[in-house]
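Second attempt. The first submission of Lipopolysaccharide biosynthesis protein had a stray character pasted in from the spreadsheet, which I only caught after the job came back as garbage. Lesson logged: always re-copy from the clean sequence file. Corrected sequence (342 aa) follows.
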Amino acid sequence: MISLKDKKILFLSVSFFKYEKAIAKRLSEIGAEVDFYDERPSNSNLSKGIIRLNKGFYHLKINNYYNHILDEIKGKKYDYFFLIKGEAIPTFFLEKIKENNPEMEMIYYNFDPLTEYPNLISNLKYFDKKFTFEYNDSVKFNIGFRPLFYLDEYKDLKQNSHPDYDIVFIGSAHTDRYIVGENIRTIADKLNLKSYFYYYAMGRIAFRLKKIIDKNLKQFDINKVSFDKLNHQQIIDFYKKTKSVLDINKPFQNGLTIRTFEVLASGRKLITTNSDIKNYPFYCPNNILVIDRENIQVDPDFFNTDFKEMDKDVLYKMSLDSFIECIFDHDQDDYWNSFREN
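This time the job returned cleanly.
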């Protein structure tokens, strides 16, 4: 593991299920001095919606928030500025921190397709190192390719010899997840496979409004949606009770979700709609069942074999420590790209 002893890092990130807190904590553990700020001035559903649709409507609040950060860090010198996603961040802030720290290395990471957030593309020019979890974006925009990671608490969970479930799904309610998920639930019932589905939405009012706009969400049975967010320990408890975990990616997304890494690190089998997983070093048909969301077929034999232990070097490459090494030390493009089919 690299050492960041006495390195000063200004770290801003979108809030994503407290992974940003875990990153900041790990950076501190390996010696860095970290000043962390949420990149949004507020994480209310209204604020998120306005920032996503047109942050110009939130112009004054955003500017006040970032001017407040500038006041708090005034006079401080940083070795690194690290930004994850950056939906709200204004260009004046990027320019000002670089002006105040001309030797500072500017690093960017995104875990969403840039085609979904095209307004983020214009900020790429401010960064010395840029990374994405989406291979196609790495090629299109000539930036580094680094998949996501797992947290250590998910690693090597003890396997229950008689799990309560064959399939568990835990995920946010968006796009066609409900349609795909319920189709898989129906198939699982016919195969006498025990399943559990947990669809999560940020807020009841926001979800009802999205149901009006999004044709996929119109089919969502609101009685099957929870508005309580599960924490990591609750998710881990479900993993301990299941043979496999289902992951349903967004239809337009090729980058692997963070759930992918957590599931495999935990020693649980993975069922996924993302066929691009075949281009990764950990792909193994015994552990990973790829299904077509347009023509769903679940092979019952997949559940009759145990999880095949992963190569330790590959498992490390999937970890948060390896992610940090890539971001702050040497890029891993050669490694991750070497498994891709030409």
